Structure formats: C-alpha cells, structure tokens
Amino acid sequence: MDWNDLILSFKNYLRLEKSLSENSIKAYVRDVNKLAEVFRDISPDEISFHDIEKFVVSNEIHSISTHSQARLISGIKAFFRFMIYEGLLESNPVQLLEAPKLKRKLPDVLSVEEINKMINCIDLSHLHGDRDKAMIEMLYGCGLRVSELTTLRISDLYFDDGFIRVIGKGNKERLVPVGSLSIKAVNIYMEYHRNKLNAKKGDNDILFLNHRRGRLSRAAIFDLIKRLAVQAGIKKNISPHTLRHSFATHLIENGANIRSVQEMLGHKSISTTEIYTHLDCSFLKKTVEEYHPRYGGKVME
C-alpha cells in the first residue's frame, strides 16, 4: 500500500466526498504527510494504535502547541476514517486516540469607534483606497470570512434586495443582509475602479482585484488589516477574523437573536456561534437588571 497514492486518494476524498475547502484539504494532507514521514517504511494498514500513540508523544509533536496537536490528531483520524470508508482497514487504530483539551480563547473584539478609526485611516486618494474601504465595510458589515471576501463575485451582489450570496465552508451557500454603508462603499469602488479593470481570465466576475487584475490573496487582506490597525493606534492583536467576531458580538450586544447570527455567520452548530458572541460584563449586567424579576425587571405575580 503506497503512501503517496493513498494520500492522493485521501485528498480527492476530502474534495469530492466531504466538499472541504482547499485550505482545509491542505491542512489535512499536511498532517498526514507528517505521519507518512515517520512511518514511510510501514504500510499504512499495518500501523497500530501503539505506533500512533508513540508518534503523538514524540518530541517533535510534543513540542508544538496544544492547538496544533489537536489539529494534527484530527487530520490523522480523518485519514484512517477514509481508509475504513474505502475498505482498506477492518478496524480503526486511532478510534480511542484522544486530542488534548483546548481552552476556548476568545479573540479580541473591536469597538465601533476602533473600526471607524481604521476606515478613516484609509487614503481614498490612493489607487486602491476605495477598494480597501469597501473590503473593510464588507468584512465588518456582513461578518465574512477572509476566504469568502476574496472569492466574492459581482454576480453574488443583490443590493436591490439588500443581500449578498456567500459561498462558505464546504461550498455551502447562504444569504447575508448587507447594510447601506457597505453597499455605498462597494458601489463607489465598482463605479470608479472595478468597472474599468480588465480582469484576468477566470477572475472576470471576482469583485475585489489586486494590482495585477487578479483575485486578492488572503495574505494581502491580513497585511491590510494589520497596517490599518497600526495607523489607527490599535494595540490589539487583530486579523480579518477580528472584524467577523466584532460583527457577531455587536449584533448580540444590540439584541440580535443568536440563531439569526448563526445563520449569517454560516455556522453549522450553535455552539460555534457562542464562541463568537462573547458578551462583555456590562451587557450581561444590563440584561439581568432589565429582565430579572428581582433586579429591576418586571416582578412576576
């Protein structure tokens, strides 16, 4: 049983059967490649639980972060589930393998004032100023993942109806409301810049383009966010995902239903949404004071 052929089949399985994104596929394959490097001389169907256990506690693996260890184990488990699925194994050697417990670490959230400061730092006289403003407005205004922003298409914009169509993880489609400020920013970018660009072949419908007339990379968006944060004097460790987290948090703090936020974020599980809807103590205190019968709320008879 050849490792290279098996990993290639695993990659196709993740893409076709599981409909995972290319970034997720790369992560899974990278994890299995680490396993293959150690057990290159052993056929995958001969690996035992004891072998995997030794691999997981090895110095190389033990030295990486807890989060990376958990992701690695997840990738290995997916690989052996694939082998079971293909009938290449009768029993799963990693079925009892446990990943390290992860602490739920909530990312920083930006205030509305901080987001406005970042937007105000954008030089609109610059060639890409209108584009950059439109991207920030869409990230925060619609709670998009960075990958969803870079693949957003002009044909996905339904501004007359107040929605955009988003293709999220696993190629799952959802409709997300879009506000007037986001619409205005995108329309300005479209009118004065995007409509004048002759996009590269294959990117004709992509909304946000780089200076080479192709779709932007995730790294370019990260660099933009980091640069604007520095210019705005924001000391928090932020990324494009911080704007998505801020979108969800501000909605919840202003009374939005968590199920509605779940739909807009494209989360399969409500528990995932709860991570992104961290509420500050002042909001929780206000909620108790307003609704609890013995803390200022309406007393039930």
Q: Could you say what the CATH architecture of the largest domain is?
A: Orthogonal Bundle
Summarize the main sheet: 3 strands, antiparallel
CATH homologous superfamily identity of the largest domain: Intergrase catalytic core
Beta fraction: under 5%
Helix count?
14
Number of domains: 2
SSE string: HHHHHHHHEEEHHHHHH
Mean pLDDT across all amino acids: 86
Task: Tell me the helix content.
Answer: 40-55%
According to DSSP, the number of beta strands is: 3
Principal-axes geometry comes out as: globular
Measure the end-to-end span: 73 Å
Q: What is the structural class?
A: mainly alpha
Read across the widest sheet, the strand sequence of neighbours is 1-2-3
**What would CATH call the class of the largest domain?**
Mainly Alpha
Low-confidence segments, given as residue ranges, are: none
Offer a quick outline of the entry.
The chain contains 14 helices and three strands. It is mostly helical and 301 residues long.
What descriptive keywords fit this protein?
301 residues, DNA polymerase, domain 1, hpI Integrase, Chain A, 2 domains, 14 helices, 3 strands
